[in-house]
Amino acid sequence: MPEKSDKLLLLDLDETLIHATTVPLAFTPDFKFDPYYVYMRPGLDQFLANISTHFTLGVWSSASDKYVEEIVKMITPDAMEWFMIWGKSRCTIKRDYNLDTYYFEKRLDKVKKKGFKLEQIIIVDDSPEKSRSNYGNAVYIEPFEGDRNDDELRYLYDYLLTLKEVSNIRTIEKRGWRYQMLGK
Ligand SMILES: [Mg+2]
Predict the structure, then answer these.
(1) What is the CA(110)–ligand 1 centre distance, in A?
(2) Which of 63, 71, 128, 131 has its CA 20 to 30 A from that of 103?
(3) Is the pLDDT of residue 129 over 90?
């Protein structure tokens, strides 16, 4: 077993780890959670099993708590444990005055109470607006909408390992991370 880093890795759920849709795609879903057909991002099982030996892991989604709990149950590999599983009730509702809409934001200061400093937290999300206040902590990935050739998790895994030992996540330039990994 590799030594675990002191970092907390928070993963978004929808379009980051899975794609859930009420309209089925042309191929068999990995499972159903009524009324959704759920497709796991390619390599998800291996990604979770491996990355959990390097980081403390959490899920934070802005979907309903019940949905998050049930989906996480279905995608968790054997013997893997989550430090936290958070849904919408832990998000902060914010108003976007330009678009006149509301959105749910994940505020990392709430996680500090769980014993991690901001410089130790990495959040992976496909929706920049939900992590707007976490700019220095966020690794943005391409949304997954069911493409069976998607290989984002493979590159993400390699990239996350480069963050394992850094002293402060917030000082690392993370834009363009995928291009850095393509060359490896
Ligand atoms: Mg998402």
Answers:
(1) 19
(2) 71
(3) no
Which structural domain range is residue 51 located in? 8-182
pTM (global) more than 0.85: yes
- Compute the distance between CA of residue 163 and CA of residue 179 in angstroms, rounded to an integer: 16
Distance from the alpha carbon of residue 20 to the mean position of ligand 1, in angstroms: 11
* Identity of the highest mean pLDDT range in 51-55, 100-104, 112-116: 51-55
Measured in angstroms, how far is the CA atom of residue 1 from the centroid of ligand 1?
30
| Mean pLDDT, the chain, integer | 93
- Cβ-contact 20, 37 below 8 angstroms: yes
Provide the pLDDT for residue 131: 66
CB 144 within 8 A of CB 19: yes
Ligand 1 midpoint to CA 142 (Å):
10
Centre of ligand 1 from the C-alpha of residue 22, in Å = 16
Q: How confident is the model at residue 175 (pLDDT cuts 50, 70, 90)?
A: confident
Alpha helices for the chain (secondary structure H): 44-51, 65-75, 109-112, 152-163, 177-182
CATH number at residue 166: 3.40.50.1000
- For residue 141, report the distance from its CA to the centre of ligand 1, in Å: 9
Q: How many domains does the chain have?
A: 1
